[in-house]
Every structure is written in C-alpha cells, then in structure tokens.
Amino acid sequence: MILIKTISQLREKLAPYRNKPSSIGFVPTMGALHAGHISLINSCKSADTICVCSIFVNPTQFNNAQDFEKYPITIEKDIDMLEASGCDILFLPSVAEMYPPGDVKKNYDLGYLETILEGKYRPGHFQGVCQIVDKLLAAVLPDNLYMGQKDYQQCMVVQKMIDLEEYATVLNIGPTIRENDGLAMSSRNLRLNETERQQALTISKALIFLKEKLRPGQTDSLRQQSEKILTDAGYKVDYVAVADAATLRPVENWDGKQLLVALVAAFLNEVRLIDNMVING
Ligand code: PAF
After folding, report:
1. Which of 104, 154, 112 is closest to 130 using CA atoms?
2. Where are the chain's structural domains?
3. What spacing in Å lies between the alpha carbon of 146 and ligand 1's midpoint?
4. What percent of the chain has pLDDT above 70?
5. Burial of 49 (C-beta count, 10 Å sphere; 0-12/13-18/19+)
6. Can you name the CATH fold of 2-174?
7. CATH class of the 187-276 domain in this structure
8. Mean pLDDT, to the nearest integer, of 118-128?
C-alpha cells in the first residue's frame, strides 16, 4: 500500500487507471477503522482495479466541538488493517490540503433530507459531509464509491450530492456490520466504557423490536414503545423514526407493502450512537 498526502500526487498515481477496463474504487473514512470499513474495502477490492481509502477527520462536519476533539484516532492500527486488507492507496491529507486558506465553502441544496433526523439534530453536519466528499470525489474521480448502510441518511445525502454535482461515480452501499451482541460497528464505540458498552446493545434491540412487531396500520404506538426501551435503559433519545426507505418521510399509517426503515439516534452519557434497520426488505 502506498501512502499519499497531496491531491496532486494522488491524481498522478491514479492517471493510469482512468480508462476502461480499469476502474477506481474509493472508500472514504475518518479512521478508527473496524470490520465495517474493511468489508467496504473487500467489496472494492473484488470489483475495482485499484482501491483507494482516505482517512480524514473532517472538521466541517462536526457540529459539536467536543465530539470532534474526542473523535478516536488510531492511525497506526488503521494502516496495519488497510495493509492486511490489500488496500492499494491510503490518502491521508492534512486539513490545509483539503481546506486551503481562502477556500470558499459550497452550499448544497439537499432539500427535505437536511431538515430531518440527523439533519435536524446535527445542524450543518450534512453540508460538511457534502463539502468533504465532493472534494474527495473531485480528487479521486472514482468509478465506484463504497459507504456503509449504518449511516443510512448520509448515503442518501451523498447520492443527492453526486447527482447535484453530476459525478459519474456509482454509490455502492455495504451492509451494517455488527458485533456478536448486535451493536452496529462504529468508530465512536471506542469511546464507550465497559458499562456503556454493555448497555449499547439496547439500540439494536429497540430496532429489532420494531422489525419484529410492526404490522400494517398505525406505527406510532410501537415507535413510542421502542423509544421507551431506550429511555428505560438510560439513553437520552434524539429520535426513533419509522420512515419510507426511499424518501425518509415518516410513515404513520403503514399499508404493509411500502418499504420501511427504522432509524435511531440516542446518547449513552456523552456518546451519541445511531443505527437503523430496513423493516421489510
Ligand atoms: O462516514 C464517515 O466516516 C464520514 O462522514 C465521511 C463519509 C468519510 C466524510 O467525512
């Protein structure tokens, strides 16, 4: 694996792979890698000629300064994991490389998607995600982009940005990878202490409860029961939502056919966890 720190070197290295039948695959990350990231690298490796991974803790997508400061950094372990996975290029830019002085931040018209769920509870977050993913896509110009379903709304936002900016990149969404007890793998899990780690499985339990119990008709009472599972376990809940899987519009009266996704965001003390499950997919 080669390590590249500048956009110009990255472009130079990727130039020979720009033409068919070669294809460039790209896995953007903020580091603190886990098996979820590696499953994306594996998909990339099996489909593309060259696999690029980026590690960049993007300051513009943190709406909470403490969350940014405490974001786990495990760069040496990350490099070992990427080497072992067969990743070809690790792009590791500095903040000044991605946001040079005088850089004008773009604004993306994300519409409804930005007003709900993560967009509502983390104002500005998705603008920051679009700013960095746009810059990374412009640098890599991948044929295939790989992101995890764990960040369901982020995948929808990035697809919207790809359409708005007219990239020729195809977004491939990999399944959420879970620990044995059901906890969705996440870099933020590293911030949980032992007791919190045990409590953390309640998030997936609350989603499984919805997945198993939801029947055609009114959804709200079950949604509230799922929220109660979390508050009873000591969580401070931002949202539990039952929504249309394609639009994220809330579904209060389900016809039993519409594809649904249940999404959760909740705090365990200082750590905010999110997760989701497609209900009837
Ligand atoms: O999901 C993440 O790790 C980040 O939001 C991403 C897509 C790498 C952009 O910084």
Report:
1. 154
2. 2-174, 187-276
3. 11
4. 100
5. middle
6. Rossmann fold (3.40.50)
7. alpha beta
8. 98
